[in-house]
Design a protein that fits this description.
It contains six helices and seven strands. It has helices spanning 17-27, 40-50, 84-87, 119-134, 157-165, 174-180; strands at 7-11, 54-59, 62-70, 102-110, 138-144, 183-188, 201-207. Strand 2 and strand 3 form a beta hairpin. The N and C termini lie far apart (51 Å).
Length: 236
């Protein structure tokens, strides 16, 4: 019986920038045409403003995944409608503020060749370890609705999210985020130009119970973790 693979996590460095760009493009080939992938200038900016929040996953000393985060200024309403370009300042993290209260997950990406080998889970664990060490109130993210385009002519994005959260259908991205412990707080419209998601995204939150009273039970199901307070929208 072979030994389990060891995935190591470390902070990204400027020498990683070319490999990170290649990895980001490999993870999102369908977003390249829309310019919704990182370029070297953006990744250099991330490392320059918040190196601690830029993490790399390695398997057998090969880079196989990464995540990028920043701390928005406290004045930015992270749990209200926003776009990826708006909150990240065009992907440059210009308003990173160490005095803020939230850790914003701007991106998490994995080499397609190693999917289902625990890399994503390792990165999520590292994300939450970082958040705890920073003693912030919560983690916030916008998540792709990867499978929504297949049913967008039948149901609204809100209904799609609700069905995934209640276990009635699966979505490669949202289902994994629910397993990681994220709460769905709503649906973001025009979040990112993404044909798979029809430009929608989930508004996700992971709450620090030391700072915020509301929290999910550790035994909660995906249905329990769905906030449910979603605005109605016409069928498309």
């Amino acid at each position: 019986m072979s030994a389990p693979e060891t995935i190591s996590i470390r902070e990204a460095t400027l020498s990683d920038v070319p490999a990170l760009v290649d990895l980001n493009h490999a993870a999102y080939p369908d977003l390249i045409v829309d310019g919704a992938v990182y370029d070297p200038e953006q990744i250099e900016a991330h490392i320059g403003c918040f190196s601690r929040g830029q993490l790399v996953a390695e398997l057998d000393r090969k880079m196989v995944g990464a995540l990028s985060t920043f701390v928005p200024a406290a004045s930015i309403p992270v749990l209200k409608q926003h776009t990826w370009l708006g909150i990240t300042d065009g992907g440059m993290f210009l308003r990173h503020d160490p005095t803020g209260k939230a850790l914003y997950l701007a991106d998490i990406y994995v080499d397609p060749g190693v999917r289902r080998r625990g890399v994503g889970q390792a990165l999520y664990r590292a994300l939450f370890d970082l958040w705890r060490s920073l003693e912030l109130e919560h983690v916030v993210a916008g998540g792709r609705l990867w499978g929504y385009s297949a049913v967008a002519d039948q149901i609204t994005a809100e209904d799609y999210v609700a069905q995934v959260a209640h276990g009635h259908r699966t979505d490669p991205v949202l289902s994994s985020q629910l397993r990681a412990g994220f709460l769905v707080r709503g649906v973001l419209s025009d979040y990112l130009h993404d044909w798979r998601s029809k430009n929608y995204a989930t508004l996700l939150e992971w709450v620090n119970p030391a700072h915020v009273a509301r929290r999910a039970s550790p035994r909660a199901t995906a249905a329990d973790r769905f906030d449910g307070a979603l605005p109605s929208s016409p069928r498309r």
